[in-house]
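Notes to self after the Tuesday call (sharing in case useful).
The group wants a holo model before anyone commits to mutagenesis around the pocket. I volunteered. Ligand is MGD. Logging inputs and output together so the record is complete.
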Amino acid sequence: MKLLVDGREVEAEGSVLDACLKEGANVPHLCARTGLPAAGHCRSCLVEVNGRTVAACTTPVSPGAQVVTQSPKLSAYRADLFALMASEATLRGEAATLGKAATFPTPYVRLASDERRDETHPHLRFDLSACIKCRLCVRACDEVQGQFVYAMTGRGVNSRLSFGPGAFVDTDCVSCGACTQVCPTGAISDRDRLRLDPEVPVEHVKTTCSYCGVGCQLDVTVQRGDVVQIDGAVSPVNREHLCVKGRYAHAFTRHPERLTTPLIRKNGVLTPASWDEAISLVARGFLERRGHAAALSSSRCTNEENYLVQKWFRAGLGTHNVDCCARVCHAPSAAGMRRSFGTGAATNALEDIEKADLLFVAGSNATASHPVTGARIKQAVLQGAKLIVFDPRRTELARLADVHLAPQPGTNVLVLNAIACAILEGGTVDADFIGARTEGFGEYANFVRKFTPESTEAITGVPAALVRRAAALYAEAQTPMQVHGLGMTEHLQGSEGVMLLCNLAMLVGAIGRPGVGVNPLRGQNNVQGAADMGCQPDLLTGYADPAVPEVKARFERIWGRPLPLEAGKTLPKMYEAIDRGELTALYILGEDVVQTDPDAEKVRERLDKLELLVVQEIFLSETAKRAHVVLPGASFLEKDGTFTNGERRVQRVRRAIAPPGDALADWQILLRLMEASGLPQPFHHPREIFAEVSAVAPSLAAATYDGLERQGLQWPVTAVAPHGTVRLHTESFTRGRGAFQCVDFIPSPAFTLKPGQLRLITGRRLEHYNSGSMTRRSENVKLAPDDQLELNPADARAHGIRTGDRVRVSSEFGHAEARAEVSDVVAPGVAFLTFHFPETGTNQVTSDVVDRLADCPEYKLTAVEIRRV
Ligand SMILES: Nc1nc2c(c(=O)[nH]1)N[C@H]1C(S)=C(S)[C@@H](COP(=O)(O)OP(=O)(O)OC[C@H]3O[C@@H](n4cnc5c(=O)[nH]c(N)nc54)[C@H](O)[C@@H]3O)O[C@H]1N2
Ligand SMILES: Nc1nc2c(c(=O)[nH]1)N[C@H]1C(S)=C(S)[C@@H](COP(=O)(O)OP(=O)(O)OC[C@H]3O[C@@H](n4cnc5c(=O)[nH]c(N)nc54)[C@H](O)[C@@H]3O)O[C@H]1N2
Ligand code: SF4
Ligand code: SF4
Ligand SMILES: [Mo]
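Result:
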């Protein structure tokens, strides 16, 4: 709509403040922040609209409105306002900058300011003498993160910001840093902000977080060539929010243990070597072992790097033996959803969380594993959305849930069939959707009727009444949206469990429109992209099937090489091939299989059998320690490229600092390796590699770096959808009709316990990330110094264990040791152990059971014994 700002015509929506800022008018504003609804608290943005003085942030634009931003009256008002603030607080930061002209010295009587300081937290710092009581921190903590750490106490001039009487480190804070980012005075600050030297120029680089698959956009502040501070950037993904890893776990970049030079094993010892020597040794080593070579690519690395890895192995070395950590993670989501719907990726977008009237969270601990998404789910629930949580543990979200279904680990199939049975019995299916868009319903309806909630209760441990209540809530919702995690996939029946989630969505017609769908919360920052690029043995870039002759011909034309005919191996099959002596050379890009693959003892044995193990890493990981050659790569802050998040959004990664020593960007190393292997590539920048990806992958046909620049694009990005695709399967399913699947329950071997055994689940905690190679080398260790074993009080009592005790966890595969945390998060008979510290040995305990369809390890169920040590 059109209005006048200082006499100039402006076309704007939203608030008068938005219109003024769009016009470039100089309107001070302290408490108006994107990501938070306008509140009009600080009054610094007063302007005149049609002659009336109003707060611009809370006044909506109206057609033809006349806005005046500068007048003697407004100047006097602003001067007075900042003078008043200065009488209450030591103006610093943004507030000082804005108030500079007006306020010093203040004509008002200086009130006794709040002198409270607190430096107890590893990241956050408090000096409340600078607090101007704008409440932004309170609102960020309540309305964005949902942690409710702060309150304003007292009234009028006596009001104070409070976080309770104790030390800040003992509050419920989850260190997201939202409050520090919005604080306009520095009353709430953090170590990073204090490290910033105000005298030295800074550079800002926008890039994508390299921890989880949410894909938050970061605003990185660089000073003297070093990352000093990270803030949340404006983006539909994270709306300026971040978590404790994305914001604070960046010290690893300058850690002394970073790899800075190639290493070659000589006389048993990894010894520094030149790039030339290392590259030719590796290239020759793989060429000599053609037919016996395999690659594991990295979901931590960029799309361009993943593309090169599989191209090198397929076109250069003639093998489809390429896999990545999706195998041990969401490969079952991809396989299951592909069978049901035709595309193995999230059907909807993160923005749909606010459009859903019910969220069904299955086997996902989102507030710890995808914290920015988790916070969004919490906010949706606080705004009235219903919540069903399906998880054996009482997670943070489970505590907020309308219904918490807590199954025995490994019984997902029974519970999901029982929910379907209850929906069918209730007759609340969407018959129109089923008739028009699906197939196999008749057989499925007959099959699933035997799984009554009452008949499954004894095995699953979930009361029939709760199953029926969840079924009714899901079926009655207008916009029921599912998100799921590894509690679904990392099981013997992982892919099948995911298909049952798809069944539920189809039963009630919850596919193909806003606020619904089946949405795997993809784990690693670029696991979606690694799979999109073709880092799996059976599918090429863009999920092209090499068995289709036209597809094969197209790739051969673009790559200029014949494609291998023999099928490739998944990661578990690669290990078996090592045992048989068929596989002798393995290239691993950024994956610490020794720490993160199951049955670690066996993994070590197998790696040690290899004639050539090459690991391209940023740290000497447990896996790199066993390599013949180690190549030093660059971290995400040190290179360009793209990552694809869990909602299929391809986003730019931009170099902020230089890699340490002689380390090179992984794509540069790969180009050198390809050239030395006789497969020279014409690329000089990731932009050019991406152009080839677009040429090969139909789903990215219309994607370019320029198009991704602003906020990325969700694939498919094609000529008919040049701005990307927010939701899949809107008209029909990728495979035509959605396929109902009949799945019977098959108990895992570990489901049957021997006397005295517990069911062990392994997984994550907020502060650390997977192998921990990066978060353990950051200040986050001060928040979480080690792994923990959650035990129910009953089991702890029975074994004489208290919180803090060291406990040995044993299975038939091996032992682990960790500190006990006695809590009711887990039910009796269930234990939970994290895997972020190598010394814990979590994966020495986990088993060799894998998903029936996708070979994903069953990390979520091992029969174990425990004892105090
Ligand atoms: N802080 C942090 N964030 C991370 C990571 C990290 O290491 N740390 N890693 C990233 C990666 S790679 C991934 S894949 C994601 C994973 O993120 P999530 O999917 O949240 O992973 P987990 O915590 O391993 O497991 C999720 C939940 O599954 C539940 N569960 C276990 N067994 C069962 C079962 O039989 N049925 C059901 N219904 N639930 C079950 C567990 O109790 C747990 O709460 O997180 C990503 N984000
Ligand atoms: N017990 C148990 N085990 C599990 C799981 C579980 O739930 N329980 N979850 C599984 C899951 S879902 C996953 S995804 C895997 C994850 O397993 P991994 O992929 O092994 O875990 P990460 O710690 O992410 O390790 C990646 C490695 O890449 C390196 N790296 C990071 N950035 C770069 C880069 O830019 N370049 C290069 N060259 N290297 C880089 C890091 O230093 C790190 O050593 O773990 C699995 N293991
Ligand atoms: S860091 Fe996050 S959780 Fe902690 S007080 Fe600030 S806003 Fe709240
Ligand atoms: S939620 Fe995930 S992507 Fe966002 S800052 Fe945290 S780790 Fe990074
Ligand atoms: Mo993962």
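Two things stood out.
The mean pLDDT is 95.
The first strand starts at residue 2 and ends at 5.
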